[in-house]
């Protein structure tokens, strides 16, 4: 399954993340790929806003992992935001406990997931963001698991 959408502004990228949050469930893993400045963090912030994260949501580039509390249909859930940009070896993903975040009471967003692709679950949603600076962004949603097709349908009508 693959869906494509164009975002003309940071606000639209943010809003698209917020819309995606409406179909996320505990246990979901969303891998965000794109060059520096593509809008991965803006997209993640939109997801956070849609899930009711209170306070600023910043990129965890230096801390690697930020965790937030949020609600899905009245149930507390954790939003775990990872940035693996600084990792140099796949084994480092295991050392920081990447797989510990793939649990039913959490949604995990991973920026720069390429280094850890062997650890990602098969039902992971991949979101590629192409473009940078003032350019429009092409945002491509890929998933191997067919359940995503039904869940994402409302975004692409």
UniProtKB/TrEMBL annotation:
<keyword id="KW-0963">Cytoplasm</keyword>
<keyword id="KW-0547">Nucleotide-binding</keyword>
<dbReference type="InterPro" id="IPR003442">
    <property type="entry name" value="T6A_TsaE"/>
</dbReference>
<dbReference type="InterPro" id="IPR027417">
    <property type="entry name" value="P-loop_NTPase"/>
</dbReference>
<keyword id="KW-0067">ATP-binding</keyword>
<keyword id="KW-0479">Metal-binding</keyword>
<protein>
    <recommendedName>
        <fullName>tRNA threonylcarbamoyladenosine biosynthesis protein TsaE</fullName>
    </recommendedName>
</protein>
<dbReference type="Pfam" id="PF02367">
    <property type="entry name" value="TsaE"/>
</dbReference>
<comment type="similarity">
    <text>Belongs to the TsaE family.</text>
</comment>
<keyword id="KW-0819">tRNA processing</keyword>
<keyword id="KW-0460">Magnesium</keyword>
